[in-house]
């Protein structure tokens, strides 16, 4: 488990935020005001069942917010696709997503992350279709 803080800008307190893809320069993007700040507790600091469950509850709340926001952005991607609407998933892009995530979560591994992201993508597409 990581002992760090993640905020909505994609950075950590000691790391820069995401680069600006629109600039093409790799220069850091102007960070938006953080919408969510989540402390990632160290497993070693959790000594009781109640503490561990409270940590899970906090992480789950953050995941819910992130998943909802991801679904909204993914719905926009579907509308912006040149083929229009929900004309299809992009397996290459999905592999890129999973590969990038696997670098951040090596203990989960690529196969587990692929299954998780498949469910996330399908749920997001389903939610956007309503």
TrEMBL record:
Q: Which GO terms describe its molecular function?
A: chorismate mutase activity
Location of the region described as Disordered in the Swiss-Prot/TrEMBL record: 1-28
Write down a Pfam family by its short name: CM_2
PROSITE patterns recorded: CHORISMATE_MUT_2 (PS51168)
List the GO biological process terms: chorismate metabolic process
Tell me the ranges covered by the Chorismate mutase domain, including all copies. Answer: 43-130
Q: What is this protein called?
A: Chorismate mutase domain-containing protein
Which source organism? Answer: Actinomadura verrucosospora
């Amino acid at each position: 488990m990581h002992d760090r803080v993640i905020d909505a800008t994609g950075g950590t307190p000691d790391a820069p935020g995401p680069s600006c893809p629109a600039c093409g320069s790799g220069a850091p993007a102007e960070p938006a005001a953080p919408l969510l700040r989540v402390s990632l507790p160290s497993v070693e600091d959790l000594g009781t069942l109640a503490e561990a469950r409270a940590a899970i509850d906090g992480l789950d709340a953050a995941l819910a917010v992130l998943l909802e926001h991801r679904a909204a952005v993914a719905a926009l991607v579907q509308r912006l696709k040149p083929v229009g609407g929900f004309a299809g998933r992009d397996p290459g892009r999905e592999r890129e997503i999973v590969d990038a995530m696997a670098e951040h979560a090596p203990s989960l591994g690529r196969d587990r992350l692929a299954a998780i992201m498949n469910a996330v993508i399908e749920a997001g597409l389903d939610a956007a279709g309503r």
